[in-house]
Each structure stands twice: as structure tokens, then as C-alpha cells.
Structure to design on (294 residues):
């Protein structure tokens, strides 16, 4: 990483060395990154992305730290945090948001503006970039329902913009693997602000009642299989409350694993395998991971 170190020194990009990643994830689990870089502009991000590729330095993109489990040993490479790229613009029905913007705050802003389309995605603890990259959603829809276009860095570091019809998105995936999401443009619909707010608040109440929103988790661990929801499959297999160390299957929603104290990544991974094996043995269902593991 010597050549890259020289680039980082000369670039002026803010960099933290041996930065604990657990503090930057919703799980509060994970060791340090060798370097945590925080570019302030798309030009800085593009230069850093290309430098990492040219020097064959392992690189990951970090948003809000949701939907992510970082191993206890950390990540031996560069983690690019997009938190400084967080501009949001609402002009009529058109909403533009950079990747580092808070998705929950974006949803609230659109609700306050009397726009419907994102209100059903209340309570998803993601950055805008992460929500787009994973095609975040739930029973009330998914983010690509209202995406008009997505701006990315392609694998070569070139800025490209693609309309929704050009993107091969699907259930909990955008098809943008190898790209860095820079932001998205959303086309929403004007509606009665009172109705939109009431629908948003109903979604939040429902999630608070059925999900461990105030506990440390990464969100849903598994994708829903075709036969039934992952949470129901885990519950029916008897794993609610199952525990390995301080990693516990939530008693509120079985598709959540919570960090009940000082859970390690190995605790979580061991519990994931226990649950997967049990559901496979009991119901002949193979659960696929939704959470990313670094």
C-alpha cells in the first residue's frame, strides 16, 4: 500500500489509520480498517477509487453501516466512507440525493414536503447509496419503485448515469456490483401531506412493534425465500431467542440477530450457521444472506 499511501498524503483526502469499524456499524461489531478515507467531493472519490484499483489495494464502500457485519480482525485495506457526500435537493416531484445522505432523514423530508413514494420505506437505517445498492424495501415496496436514475462510478472510475430501465435490479439487489453508487434521482408523487404523514407514522409504529429497532442489529439477516418469510421460517424452526455468546435471535422478529452485549463477529456467524442448518433440516429451506460480511 506504499504507493497508495503517497497518493493519500498528497491528495488532501481526510484519512484515519487503524480506524475501528465497529463504531461505524449498526451492529457495533468489527475490528479496524487499515485506512478509513472520507472524500469530500466526487472528484476526490473518483481519484481514490482509481488509485485503489491501480495499486490492487482491497477497498470497500461504507455508508451508514447497516446491513453489514465486519469481522473482528477488521479489514486490511481502504474503507471509503461517503458521509461527506450527503447533499439532498427537492424540487417539485423530483428528489436528488447523494449516496452519503441519511435515508431515514430523506424519507422524513419527502413526507414533510407532501410527497408519497418513500413513506412506506420508513425505518430503514441506511444511507441513500446503501439503500439503492441493496434495493432496500419491505412489505410496502422497494426503493426502485421510485428510482428514476442512478449515478455511479463504474469499475474503471468513470462517472455514469443510468435510468432505471437500464439497471438489472431485483429483490434486494440493484445489479450495480462493481460500481460505487454516487446518488439517485427519485420521482415521487404529490399527495395530501396529512395522509402521507399518517401513512409514514403507521409504518414506523408497525416496525417498532414487530422489529428490534432500538437494539443493535444489522437489519434482516436473510433474504425472504419463495415459500415463506425468513422470519417465519426461523420462528417455526424454533430459533427465536437462540444465542451464541452475546449474539441473540430477536424475540420480536426472528430474522434479526441482535448484539446483546459484547457479541463478536464469530458469535454472529456461528449463530447464522446454526439457524441456517436448523431451517434446512426442519423445513428444507435454504436461507440466503442479506447482510454483507467484510
Amino acid at each position: 500500500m506504499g504507493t497508495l499511501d503517497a497518493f493519500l498524503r498528497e491528495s488532501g483526502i481526510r484519512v484515519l489509520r487503524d480506524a475501528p469499524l465497529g463504531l461505524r456499524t449498526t451492529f457495533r461489531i468489527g475490528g479496524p480498517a487499515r485506512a478509513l478515507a472520507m472524500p469530500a467531493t466526487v472528484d476526490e472519490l473518483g481519484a481514490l477509487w482509481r488509485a485503489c484499483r491501480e495499486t490492487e489495494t482491497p477497498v470497500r464502500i461504507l455508508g451508514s453501516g447497516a446491513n453489514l457485519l465486519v469481522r473482528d480482525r477488521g479489514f486490511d485495506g481502504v474503507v471509503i466512507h461517503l458521509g461527506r457526500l450527503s447533499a439532498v435537493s427537492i424540487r417539485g416531484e423530483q428528489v436528488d440525493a447523494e449516496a452519503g445522505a441519511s435515508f431515514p432523514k430523506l424519507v422524513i423530508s419527502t413526507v414533510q414536503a407532501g410527497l408519497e413514494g418513500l413513506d412506506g420505506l420508513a425505518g430503514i437505517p441506511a444511507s441513500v447509496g446503501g439503500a439503492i445498492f441493496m434495493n432496500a424495501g419491505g412489505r410496502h415496496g422497494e426503493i426502485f419503485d421510485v428510482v428514476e436514475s442512478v449515478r455511479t462510478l463504474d469499475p474503471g472510475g468513470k462517472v455514469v448515469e443510468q435510468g432505471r430501465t437500464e439497471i438489472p435490479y431485483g429483490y434486494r439487489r440493484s445489479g450495480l456490483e462493481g460500481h460505487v453508487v454516487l446518488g439517485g434521482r427519485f420521482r415521487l408523487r404529490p399527495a395530501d401531506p396529512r395522509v402521507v404523514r399518517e401513512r409514514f407514522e403507521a409504518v414506523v409504529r408497525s416496525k417498532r412493534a414487530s422489529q428490534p429497532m432500538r437494539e443493535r442489529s444489522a437489519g434482516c439477516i436473510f433474504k425472504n425465500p419463495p415459500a415463506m418469510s425468513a422470519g417465519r421460517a426461523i420462528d417455526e424452526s424454533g430459533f427465536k431467542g437462540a444465542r451464541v455468546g452475546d449474539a441473540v435471535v430477536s424475540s420480536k422478529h426472528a430474522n434479526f440477530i441482535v448484539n446483546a452485549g459484547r457479541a463478536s463477529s464469530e458469535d454472529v456467524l456461528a449463530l447464522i450457521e446454526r439457524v441456517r442448518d436448523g431451517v434446512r433440516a426442519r423445513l428444507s429451506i435454504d436461507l440466503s444472506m442479506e447482510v454483507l460480511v467484510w
